[in-house]
Specification:
This protein folds into three domains: 252 residues, Rossmann fold (3-Layer(aba) Sandwich), CATH 3.40.50; 98 residues, 2-Layer Sandwich (60s Ribosomal Protein L30, Chain: A); 53 residues, Orthogonal Bundle (Helix Hairpins), CATH 1.10.287. It contains 15 helices and ten strands. Helix 1 packs across helix 6. The protein is globular, with a radius of gyration of 21 Å.
């Protein structure tokens, strides 16, 4: 019997990426008797998913195209939006979606949990910038933790461009990330600027001059996520999986987040129709050498080799392991810093029959630079009292900001200490 996981899609970003993710993992149910087909999908072919947004447009588009995939009682939509304000999303959601939203949401979640054969946890997809994804996402994460204290919560957060999408984005990100640190078991963090750079590195020279669309960014995030947490084997496979089906997200957390004070991760991937040693060499060249010239130190990594139809990956293991350990500069105090999984099939339908894909989820010091950026920007804005009235208006106070700042400072310090050892 496979374990079951529930998706929580919050805000425009969360719902768009969630739909792309479901396209990667949604099984055609040819073998409807197999529990493998129902990790993210119920026996009636409805997704184990709750969709939340403070505006109707994105969810309406979602239902117009995929109405049969969702339960209507699992859809929660407001009318006015959250104004790109964490405070309105967290404190003022009653006026946006409804006064009983949290109770209604938890009731829908409870019913979805009861439909599971073996409920493991929730995967919440959202942004850390907008009022809905950051503020309402924080409130939802907090409510789920209180209702299900021993089940997993994995946050998949998308952070804004550093150059600026909203004048409130750094405040929102600081508050959101502090709540994720306090209430989730792990965070997969995608920076929009980094996602664009990764997409450009995967393109051919003829496509390099084209602008990266929002759809391409969503698809990249969804595919990289599916490459790590989607089932490693299919119902028709005769090869035993190295991870119990449905437990992939939680085994990933145990590998990459060995301590609760260090739980921010990132995912990168590369797909090519070459041998594994060549693929790893190309992966290191394109993904482990930032433009700044610095190499990121890592605490732990999970490498997932998909498309291993001839089961040749482990023949290259000794050499590949040394290459990846050197590329990610794994800490000395972790005796087994990299774990490896393999799968015969890739999660992407667009992958050619002969292609192989390496996905790597790493817990590295990259989060330090991002947190330093947020803390520096918010400190400057806070001292100037910039835009604070929008937060006081909807129920925030100075303690919310000071506690969030202390949380992020503590996380950055913990990462620095861990990488010194």
């Amino acid at each position: 019997m496979a374990a079951n996981n529930i998706l929580i899609q919050v805000g425009q970003c969360g719902n768009q990426i969630g739909r792309d993710f479901c396209n990667f993992i949604e099984n055609d149910n040819d073998d409807s008797t197999s529990s493998m087909s129902h990790i993210y999908q119920h026996y009636d072919k409805k997704l184990r998913c709750l969709c939340v947004d403070s505006e109707p447009k994105v969810i309406s588009n979602l239902l117009n195209k995929y109405e049969k995939s969702y339960r209507k009682k699992n859809i929660f939509s407001g009318r006015s939006g959250c104004g790109a304000n964490w405070a309105l999303g967290y404190h003022g959601f009653q006026n946006v979606i409804g006064p009983s939203f949290i109770d209604d949401f938890l009731n829908a979640l409870r019913k979805e949990v009861e439909r599971c054969d073996s409920y493991m946890g929730c995967i919440m997809l959202h942004s850390t910038c907008g009022g809905t994804g950051s503020g309402l996402g924080s409130r939802i994460c907090e409510a789920i933790r209180e209702e299900y204290p021993i089940n997993y919560i994995l946050s998949v957060g998308v952070s804004p461009h550093r150059s600026g999408e909203s004048p409130l984005q750094c405040y929102n990100s600081m508050l959101s990330l502090s709540y994720l640190q306090n209430y989730s078991d792990g965070i997969i963090l995608y920076e929009n600027d980094d996602v664009i750079n990764r997409i450009m590195s995967l393109r051919s020279k003829s496509e390099s001059s084209k602008a990266v669309s929002l759809e391409a960014m969503n698809s990249y995030i969804a595919r990289s996520l599916a490459g790590i947490i989607s089932p490693l084997s299919s119902p028709k496979s005769n090869v035993a999986s190295c991870v119990f089906p449905g437990r992939e997200p939680w085994e990933m957390l145990q590998t990459t987040c060995p301590m609760p004070i260090l739980k921010f991760t990132g995912i990168k991937y590369l797909s090519k129709g070459v041998a594994w040693d060549s693929l790893v060499r190309n992966y290191v060249q394109t993904n482990c050498r930032p433009k700044s010239g610095t190499v990121l130190d890592s605490i732990s990594c999970l490498a997932v080799a998909r498309g291993d139809r001839d089961h040749s990956f482990f023949n290259f293991m000794p050499r590949l392991n040394e290459n990846l350990k050197a590329a990610y500069r794994c800490v000395n105090w972790n005796p087994f810093p990299i774990d490896y999984w393999t799968a015969e099939k890739d999660c992407s339908r667009s992958a050619s029959s002969g292609s192989r894909t390496l996905y790597v989820c790493s817990n590295s010091c990259g989060v330090i630079d991002y947190f330093d950026h947020i803390l520096s920007k918010t400190s400057t804005m806070y001292e100037a009292k910039a835009f604070l009235h929008w937060y006081w208006k909807y129920g925030c106070c100075e303690d919310d900001f000071s506690e969030a700042r202390e949380t992020l400072q503590s996380v950055a310090l913990n990462y620095r200490d861990a990488l010194k050892q």
